[in-house]
Amino acid sequence: MAEIEEQRLANLRNKEKLLAELNLNSRVIKSAKAQTVKREDGLITKKRKIEVPAVPTRSSTRLQQASERPSYKEEPDDESRPGRTKNRSKAPAKVDVVVEEVQLQPAPDVDTIRDNWSKWEAVGPPPTRDEVGTFHFEDYLLFLPNKSPDEMMREGCFGGSYWRPLKSRRLGILIEEDWRELPAAWIQGLEVERYLTDPDYNADVNKYKVACGQSIEEWEASGWIMHEYDVRGWFQWYCRFFQGRRCPDDDRQVSRWRKCVGPTGRWKRMLLKAYLKQGVHDVFDDGEDEDTKEVSPVMHQTCHHWAYEIKQHDLDEAWA
Fold first, then answer.
1. Where is the composition biased (Basic and acidic residues) (predicted)?
2. In the Cβ-directed half-sphere of 126, how many Cα atoms lie within 13 Å?
């Protein structure tokens, strides 16, 4: 027994010596239990040590082999945020497009509507053109296109298919051969089958060699066409307006033009912004200077469809 007691005391001395060497004698080891603290005012309070759960350090073999380690930090759920939803759907599978055959049933007033298309007289004065190529109509001062209808067709617009045979769901009739009402001078020497009546949209016909916009059928479905005046929509209206016809749809069409390519029109503004963003100071005009940097041919073609073409003075004003 004496030997055991002597060994125990020796162990205690060695332990105290080790603690002294490590300078641990002066440390205060706080307990996880509440500590009693006496304040200067004599009140006694208790402080409790808050234990923060540690991030797990152990992981299974499955997690160790994973390409990414899981995060244990709490993050807000996107699905719980108002106005935001988490997209869980995958890209839609490709499907075959089925073209529905339209069964035409003529509207009861179709004959009257047809008469309105052709029985009109020119009452508006012909436009004048200024030194930068802008047209001016004295009875519509805010309508300022810089492309005439014949220039648009000769340069290439609407994929060469604007005047193709058209089935109107609204009227229930087939419209064709109405391109023949165009002035002979506008289409003289023009390959009609390629530039006007191609049954298929051909982007190579367009001035900027790109496709843009929707079909006349889509315009009709969207309610943008006033059939009693122009069954094909905007460009047909412009052809007739340019020749002097005036009708109740003029204000609406001029308003649409201004919203697209007017002084603050959407497409004109976006195209000029693209030039500024790319640091380009010279206007891109397809077919003229191959060294000129191309800036959004699609927006150029869109403006062209609205009888407007960005000119150098437009870009100079944007840079000023």
1. 70-82
2. 3
Q: Which of 191, 199, 192 is nearest to 215 (CA)?
A: 199
Cα dist. 257→34, 154, 279 in Å?
78, 21, 27
Q: Is the pLDDT of residue 63 over 90?
A: no
| pLDDT for position 64 | 43
Query: Degrees (nearest 5) of the Cα angle 243, 247, 249?
Result: 110
Q: What does residue 175 show for φ and ψ, rounded to 5 degrees?
A: -105, 125
CB 238 within 8 A of CB 307: yes
Round to whole Å and give the CA distance between 301 and 309. Answer: 8
What angle do helix axes 297-305 and 250-261 make, rounded to 10 degrees?
Answer: 160
**DSSP β-bridge partners for residue 173:** 168
Query: In the block, which residue shows the tokens 């307006």?
Result: 241
- 205/156 Cα distance (integer angstroms): 5
Lookup result for tokens 């390409």: 67
Unique residue bearing structure tokens 């929707």: 214
Three-state DSSP state, 203 = helix
Alpha carbon distance 218, 231 (integer Å): 13
Main-chain dihedrals φ then ψ at residue 118, nearest 5 degrees: -115, -25
The residues near 163 (Cβ < 8 Å, ≥ 6 apart) are 178, 179, 196, 197, 232
Q: How far apart are CA 313 and CA 132, in angstroms?
A: 8
Q: What are phi and psi of 166, to 5 degrees?
A: -125, 130
- Pull the structure tokens for residue 125: 């004065």
Buried b (16+ CB within 10 A) or exposed e, 63-100: eeeeeeeeeeeeeeeeeeeeeeeeeeeeeeeeeeeeee
Task: Quickly state the pLDDT bin for 21 (edges 50, 70, 90).
Answer: low
Whether pTM > 0.70 for this model: the answer is no
